[in-house]
Amino acid sequence: MIVWINGAFGAGKTSTARELIELIPNSTLFDPEVIGGALPHLLPSKSLAEVSDYQDLPIWRRLVVDTAAALLAEVGGVLVVPMTLLRQDYRDEIFGGLAARRIAVRHVVLAPEETILRERISGRPVPADLPDGEMRVRQWSLDHIEPYRAALAGWLGADAHSIDTGALTPCETAEHIVDALRTGAAAVCDIVQTPEPTAETVAAGVLLFDDLDRVLLVDPTYKAGWEFPGGVVERGEAPARAGMREVTEETGIRLAEAPRLVVVDWEPPTPPGYGGMRFLFDGGHLDSGAARGMLLPGPELRDCRFVTEEEAAKLLPPVRYERLRWALRARERGVALYLEAGVPVGGQ
């Protein structure tokens, strides 16, 4: 199990985490800051220059998951992780990756009043060896208060067990967390994630359209980026039926009959992915009632939207967009196309 201690800079996460490992038997402190500190030794300076926060680097998020899983496999017990996460998609990616390894996460947010946060940030010691370090570090922390407030008022406040630490010492805060874990107030996060594949997979997606002929795209919690409704075909399951099942699980929409095939695309392996066969079906038009009744937000989807082909090109990864582009052409012609890596083959 992981106890993830979230909150703004200055909320007391690290101090509380140190106290917490003294209260929870067989617990270990894992601070993902060490991964951020290692990235300058791993990545070219050009990659680091492209972001202002190392959390924006996909390698940081992957390494957090991999390191936490490896550490738990080594030491067992409970991992206490003090780390600010203010973007829901990053939370979903990291917690989802842990869920794929069957590691439960209990999410706690330390939430003192903003005036107290500002006082703590102003009095926080900063590295003396950085030019203008005091001003830059403090300003960087202050700049994150507004995103923190927005997250706390939205997804973070709904997702995590909140503790007002304004009048609490780190030891008292740790005791509150222990009580929340014992009583279940800090419950296991409801993050849906399928295990990472160990071989080629078969997946089925379904294209659904509104009355303006725009196609539905979804933003899953269990992977980065926009996608079609759908998912991995289970053992012994027909691809079309898998697509129908996934549409219902993700959106709450039940298709009355099996959708028509428009594209089969072979996705080549690109490490660390294994690739495999991708089926894309035409699920037809949704009436306005079905479109309004989609289950959002939910454990599987952060968001969804109907988009034009041009808008889809800005949201989808290139190969996925090519799959959509050819599916739309196949739909217009009433045929099914065979693709390899998003490109038609066989004189179609």
Beta-strand content bin = 15-25%
Any low-confidence stretches, pLDDT <50, length ≥5?
A: none
Q: H/E element string? A: EHEHHHEHEHHHHEHEEEHEEHEHHEE
Mean pLDDT: 86
Strand-pairing-aware structural class: alpha/beta
Rg for CA atoms: 23 Å
- Output the strand order for the largest sheet: 8-6-10-9-12-13
Helix content: 40-55%
The profile of the biggest β sheet is: 6 strands, mixed
Count of individual beta strands:
13
Q: State the shape.
A: elongated
* Tally of separate helices: 14
What does this structure look like?
With 348 residues, the protein is of the alpha/beta class. It is built from 14 helices and 13 strands. The chain has helices spanning 13-23, 33-42, 45-49, 58-75, 88-100, 114-122, 133-143, 145-153, 155-159, 170-183, 239-251, 288-292, 309-315, 318-333, and strands at 2-7, 27-29, 78-82, 105-110, 161-163, 201-209, 215-220, 230-232, 260-267, 276-285, 301-307, 337-340, 343-344. The protein has a six-stranded mixed β-sheet, sandwiched between helices. Helix 1 (13-23) packs across helix 10 and helix 4 (58-75) packs parallel to helix 5. The chain is elongated, with a radius of gyration of 23 Å. It starts with a strand and ends with a strand. The relative contact order is 0.11. The mean pLDDT is 86.
Reconstruct the topology from this structure:
Elements (H helix, E strand, L loop, with lengths): L1 E6 L5 H11 L3 E3 L3 H10 L2 H5 L8 H18 L2 E5 L5 H13 L4 E6 L3 H9 L10 H11 L1 H9 L1 H5 L1 E3 L6 H14 L17 E9 L5 E6 L9 E3 L6 H13 L8 E8 L8 E10 L2 H5 L8 E7 L1 H7 L2 H16 L3 E4 L2 E2 L4
Parallel strand pairs: 1-3, 1-4, 2-3, 4-5, 6-10, 9-12
Antiparallel strand pairs: 6-8, 7-11, 9-10, 12-13
Helix pairs in contact: 1-10, 4-5, 13-14
